[in-house]
Amino acid sequence: MAAVDAEVARLQAENDRLRRTLTDFNERIVCGRLTGELPDNFLEQFSQLPDRPLEHVLRFLPARQVVQMRHVSRKFNHLIRKCSKTMPKMKRDGTVVFRNNNAGELTVDWFDDCGSKITTTTTSLAGDEVALSELLRFIRIGGRMFFGEGVSAADEVLDQLSKAWLTIHPEVVIFSSDISHTSQDSLRAFLVKVEPSIRRLNFQNVTNISDSLLSDDVIGAAGRLDGLMVLPMCWGSELRDSNVISDINIGDRTLLAMADAGRVSSYFFVMGCSGITPGGIRAFVEKWTKKERPQVDANFSGFGWPLELCELTFYKCANVTAAAIEDACGDLLKKETIAGAGVFVGDSGEMQERVRYTTQCPSSNCRLEILFHYYPFHSHFVNEPRLDDEIDYNYDDDYPDDLDPEIEDDDFDDYDGYDAMDYDDDEDSDLD
Amino acid sequence: MIQLCSNDDPPVSFTVPRKAVELSKTIKTMLEDLEGFDMEQTPIPLPNVDAPTLELIVKWVEQHQDDPPPVEKPRVEDDDSDDSDADDDQEPEVVIPEWDKKFLPTDDEQKNQLFKLLNAANYLEIKPLLDIGCKYVADKISGQTVEWVRDYLNMENDYTPEEEAKLKEEIAWAEGL
Q1: Is residue B170 part of a domain?
Q2: Nearest Cβ partner of B170 from A14, A130, A165?
Q3: Which residues does the annotated region (Disordered) include (chain A) (predicted)?
Q4: What is this structure's pTM?
Q5: Which chain B residues are Cβ-neighbours of A74 within 8 angstroms?
């Protein structure tokens, strides 16, 4: 009975407290108006709907209206912000492009699924402006995130995007800018944030990578990836002089993790990663070959390209040469000379034989390719959506067989695989 | 049978079948905690619920006592406790049954009674009642202007002009999308 008494006493006390507050409230009403100093949360106690039902009501509303409802009152705004994680959000599943200009302004361009521009929003990263994370609070980012022009992937941007209350679920993240202002910690935190959704991570034509930025540890934060590209920007003489390209700390660990890629098409394209060793590649090939796959119905295969294509490309990786691969895993792989021209002009001007190493699992119709030259990078290069000439953009979209080397990345993975091979042929015929 | 008492002075008490009253998770848990005591003899005081509201609650739980129990889904609590990136934008699907449509105090003069009912449903954790009530309010609010909602929910615009300007900027940013 003691428990009941305690409960009754507690409820009675609560009752008394409310009664006292109410008496106080009544005393303050003079001629129908509230007078005197009110305690901070005074009105909240008497507001007609408490937080929980209000929050519940808001969840039934369209996302756009929830954002507007923030105007209703401070309490409402506070509540909506507090529950932002569970509030309906405006979905943006196309591409969002971050750009940074010299004035320190960050522009955010929003594109829909078809690459048509929706709008541009600008924010400042300095001073007491509204924070980026605050602006993105009621938006759900899916699709692709693209860090373009300027130092758009600087720590202050990444840190804001990593805030716990934001809903950021991109499948593809592309860094394509100056990343001199990006630190390991911020990049790692951002990758942890997007880890549940991210499938492909491209560092394409990035400049000013600091020595310690990219490492197995940082890339590992992104979890299981189906595609990774690390391509520092290099032009003219830089291309020929490998000393200019700073070494990237990505090694066998990241490579091995890629063997778990679950998608139909996967790629691992890296440049300047001396941490990759022939031994690591052997381990990868073994792991990849033994990976469990659903058996393919014999009637279903035979489209001319494999159902699963895994492409590894090592460019200017000190320890990875065709000869070293031959030594390390020649027994596992088949050496192929790429059709068309057997030779091409190498980076240092010498004639090189273009080869690739492949292996195939006929039972499950999948294929692994290891290549050593620069061109395959293009097949998974994601173009920044264009701002001005949307018509032109759509043209590219409609004609995927366009021979323009900057091949549009596509969500159809079969197509990607086809494209990569197709591209090689184009390349070689040019050299005929 | 269980007795429930309103917070009025003197309290008004209602006698409700145990099965019906257990639609309230709050009371159900309490009864379970007090297993072994003769709860039929002990009225349960409800400090947050007045007599008219309690009458509605009793009417509702008696009507719905034979409903199949709702499918329990783990509720995502407020932001800080939530690390799972579960589907955060799924819209809850609630259909208000015919009986409940007539039951809810939906006249405009009765809106405060409706809010009190939701308040009580929340306090007593009667999820299905809270769902349909909130759905009703949401349908009512949907598509209305900020001023209208303010009036409907008895809220006051307590922003300073500066705050309002800043907020406007934030909202405009999202509205372009």
Answers
A1: yes
A2: A130
A3: 394-432
A4: 0.72
A5: 158-159, 163
> What was the pLDDT predicted at A305?
56
**A277-296 residue pLDDT tens:** 999 999 998 888 888 776 65
Chain A / chain B CB contacts < 8 angstroms: 170
Q: How far is B123 from chain A (nearest CA, A)?
A: 9
Q: Give which of B35, B76, B108, B170 to mutate to test A binding, by max A Cβ within 10 Å.
A: B170
CB A203 within 8 A of CB A231: yes
Cβ atoms of A333 and A357 within 8 Å: the answer is: yes
Residue B1 lies in a domain: no
Residues A122, A106: Cα–Cα separation, whole Å: 6
B18: in domain? no
Query: Given a cut of 50, is residue A397 above it in pLDDT?
Result: no
pLDDT digits (tens, 9 = 90+) for B122-168: 989 998 999 999 999 999 999 899 999 988 888 888 888 888 888 88
Which of B30, B92, B149 is the closest to A60 by Cβ? B92
| Residue B83 maps to a domain | no
The pLDDT score that the predictor gives to residue B176 is 72
Number of domains in chain B: 1
pLDDT digits over B48-75, tens only? 888 999 999 999 999 998 888 766 655 5
Tokens of residue A102, six digits? 């010299």
The half-sphere exposure of B3 on its side-chain side, counting CA atoms within 13 A, is: 11
Residue B174 is part of which domain span?
145-177
Is B21's pLDDT higher than 80?
yes
Question: How far lies A298's CA from each of A53, A301, A362, A364, A366, in Å?
Answer: 57, 6, 10, 9, 13
ipTM of the complex: 0.82
